[in-house]
Amino acid sequence: MTPDGEEAHRVEGFLGVDDLLAQLELGLGKVLLRREKFGEAEKRFRAVAETSKDPETAAEATYWAGVAAYKASQDGAKLKETFQALEKKFPSSPWAKKAVVWSG
After folding, report:
1. SS3 of the chain: helix, strand, coil, percent, to 5
2. How many angstroms separate the Cα of 22 from the Cα of each of 43, 55, 76, 92, 93?
3. Which of 45, 83, 87, 39 is nearest to 64 (CA)?
4. Domain coverage including residue 33
5. How far apart are CA 36 and CA 29, in angstroms?
């Protein structure tokens, strides 16, 4: 939840400790993104992307890290780099499919 009570991230069902912690970090990153703390958000997302053992969580974190990097810099190359990373590491992920618009 954001400080004003809006839902920032939702996870349903049981998660083990490591997966739950990764999802909490994703949620915190999304709150920071909404608060326009792009650098802090990107750091959280990148940490999840690098440490999560779950490929879907890592792919989502990679996607949001790219969004945060773009928002901080307004450099479209950040989005293209993110698409390329997703395509390389997680080609069948829904996050790679969402990022395909950044390919060109």
Report:
1. 70, 0, 30
2. 13, 12, 27, 21, 17
3. 45
4. 17-102
5. 10
Query: Tens of pLDDT along 18-46?
Result: 999 999 999 999 999 999 999 999 999 99
Number of domain units in the chain: 1
Per-residue tokens: 17:
């400790």
Residue 38: which CATH number? Answer: 1.25.40.10
pLDDT at 7: 82
Which residues, other chains included, contact 29 with Cβ-Cβ below 8 Å and sequence gap of 6+? 41, 42, 44, 45, 48, 61, 64, 68
99 — pLDDT class (breaks 50, 70, 90): very high
